[in-house]
Design a protein that fits this description.
- Four copies of one chain form a homotetramer.
- Chain A is an all-alpha fold.
- Chain A has one domain: Substrate Binding Domain Of Dnak, Chain:A, Domain 2, CATH 1.20.1270.
- In chain A, helix 2 runs antiparallel to helix 3, helix 2 runs antiparallel to helix 5 and helix 3 packs antiparallel against helix 4.
- The longest helix of chain A is centred in the N-terminal third of the chain and has 27 residues.
- The radius of gyration of chain A is 15 Å and the shape is elongated.
Chain lengths: 134, 134, 134, 134
């Protein structure tokens, strides 16, 4: 299966950011969106679901924000940089909130441990891409 | 058909913001997401599509951001306010960029005129909700 | 705020289906997507959340399917009818499953009552549009 | 970065399908969604954009359908199999339509070549998962 990073290299125009930081952030956003969607579902299946409401809600929000951010970063044609920067800030905030929450019970739930890792890496990838855009 | 605003009144918990500002923003986000998706498609069908690249791209981005924002605003259970505020800022930036672009050729394309109206109203609804959250 | 049905009238090309059946289905898909997203969140806030796992899961699935279906129906430019028909079938199946579930406890939860209505209307709108396409 | 396949192994309940066919299909759906989003944007940047309208439109549809399908397949908690089967059929139809189109000008556009590969693999992964569910 081809990857989205390989795909980005086929764009007929120029990329709006350095290839490495951009690819890393695109991949992190989509992977985090998928893992948060899965974590919300795994939390829902836990016996203690009533204590995982904030985790489920934050997972769902983080998945939505990461997915939208990934889709916007994939597009290279005539980007509006103020919109992209604002969306990267929102994605960083979402990954921070969700990573903080999942980390808090990572030793109880393997899915939250994996989700916390994905959120931290996406938070960091957003930060690096944001720095490179300034 | 029931509306999302009626639905919000059935939530068993408290809403995280004033009902009016929240409902108005939720409705504006979803309507704007739909209209931007439609505007991108209408631009694609225009003979002068090659001159509408920036408009199409901005429509697609704005649709993604508005849809994610609407979904997050719909959820009332234990919200993370820093994430919500950051996403509302991103949505305001997206609607500003897309509204500016569509307004610029609103007299040539009826779909861009309608889309500019939707973007302006969503931009304003995000601003009002953001002010009310401070 | 302009509506998506008004927006469809501004498309420079021909609509791929009768305006009334198409508009009704587009609106039903998006409204149902929003209401299912809200119902999942309202169920999550209920004390008896542990008994609402199937409802929450089905709400989330139905929201995803309705949103994708709505976006595809909005686009009028050179449609692939086999894809559209298959997606309408999937949307009908999703609305049936979610409507059946929500109807089952509509008298206990106002949000499930509203959600069941939205699902039934979307199921019916998909059926009507499918019939009109044959 | 953890992958969605690793994440699926952490679910507290049983998977609704054989792990290999399920993981392969989930990954194919999300990868295809991303690559179709990118192909639509790359086509938009081509000089001959006016001849790529059907390709762009089909890319956008296929991205929406693959993303919704991936999200539904990720969830393991109390699935409704009739909805899942119908959505897999729609995804197979979308990947067939988009793969056929992109293959047709794969020798002219590298992005369409990569996109055709992604569509074919997703089409095949949907077929295999569908067969395994019967």
């Amino acid at each position: 299966m081809p990857t989205i990073s390989e795909m980005l290299s086929t764009h007929p125009g120029e990329l709006f950011a350095a290839k490495d930081a951009l690819s890393a952030c695109v991949e992190a956003c989509f992977e985090c969106a998928q893992i948060c969607t899965s974590c919300a579902d795994a939390c829902l299946a836990e016996e203690m679901v009533a204590e995982l409401r904030y985790c489920i809600r934050t997972d769902l929000d983080c998945a939505d924000i990461c997915n939208a951010t990934g889709r916007i970063l994939v597009r290279q044609t005539q980007p509006d940089m103020s919109m992209i920067r604002a969306q990267l800030e929102a994605c960083r905030a979402a990954c921070k909130a969700c990573g903080d929450e999942c980390e808090g019970h990572a030793d109880m739930h393997e899915h939250c441990k994996v989700c916390a890792q994905a959120c931290r890496q996406c938070e960091s990838a957003c930060e690096k891409l944001l720095s490179s855009l300034k």
